[in-house]
Amino acid sequence: LALPDQSNQLTHAWRSSDAQLVVLDHELRVVLWSEGMAKVMSNFRPAQGTSIQGLPFLSANARQRTVAALEVVMREEGALGDAAVAQVAITTAPNVSLHLVTPISTGAQEEVLLSMTAIKMKPLATATTVAEGPCHLLIMGK
Description:
By secondary structure, the chain is α+β, with helices and mostly antiparallel strands. Helices cover 30% and strands 23% of the residues. It contains four helices and five strands. Strand 1 and strand 2 (30-33) form a beta hairpin. It is globular, with a radius of gyration of 14 Å. The model has no long low-confidence stretch (mean pLDDT 87).
């Protein structure tokens, strides 16, 4: 098991990463949104706890497809620990698309289509929250 400070270091590393990383909790709410995601989304950063349903998808169909794909991953058996999950995400084929639109408040609405890999992981603790729930999802861009 990772000690809390190790987990917080990983959380900080992921949050400040240029990679496109999102961590969702077991109810598909945002736990972590990386700088890389903010960059491709014209500095859009959803608040911690925002439901996947609340993200700016291009369409209702795009939202439904993404949620359905994430729910399939969430139903898989087992959950990887911090150390293994990023390695597996890097080597696993994409299994979810995020088809989002940058919010008009960022200046201009632009479509963002990301091909990503979602992997079920053990809950990630952040500086402001303890690791809770049965599992989290790491979603990593390719």
